[in-house]
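quick one, 265 residues, struct below
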Amino acid sequence: MLLPSQIKQPKEKKVNYGLIKNDMVINFIKDSNIYAIKILYFLTKLDQNIIYNITDKGLIKFHLDVNELCDYCNITTRSLHSNTKKMVGTVVTIIDEKAKTTEYVALISRAKFVNDKTLEIEIHDDIFNSLNTKINGYTSINLEKLMSLKSPHSIRMFALLTYINGFNNNRLKQASWTLKEFNNFFGTKLKSYPELERTILNKINKELSEIMPFSIEKNVEIKKTPGRKPIKSLTIKPISIIDASAINKVDLKAIMDKEKSINSN
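---
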């Protein structure tokens, strides 16, 4: 007879969903780093009580278990170590329309490994406020699918598509952006729409093909003169409804109950 200590316990299932503020989904970003972005979404997990303390400089400090973090985020400890310096270079733009201010904040202000077992990170309070659970203005993200993605651009697009897919009005289930807006969103400096499609959007669509496919439509300028009409913007639309019950809702129990019902059939 096996002793209780010898019985293998089933591995705890990953929690599928996290909440993040809509502004954080659609804001501009610079030097996008996949490790910084995945850590941000790791902190949105709905099953955890986020333990933190406030530093003398007013930053929010977390102590993360490296093995748990890497396992959940589908990354290796080696790659996490080698990208620590790059993580603190990812900058997001926070725009306050009421105060008419634009602020540039590092997604992760400081990162430090302790004995290779713990990763200490510090984030700005504006970033931390985007992780707090609230009823309105937040999007529910399928973290299991997000963490499977290999590109920071794919992660950002997946979150964007999840966000716009949550609108009740079908006319709002799209994003029509200029080249400048796409560059700001992805943190790139592409010079033309064909380059944007070739180097970014087509690759993203390939990676998202099984979890959140989308269409790309060209919007051209109306002109009476003959010749090729220049593109003024591109419109991105989800072409299938994925996780519709989870989008922009905070009722985690309803989400999990539906998953159990699906899995039992």
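The first helix runs from residue 22 to 26.
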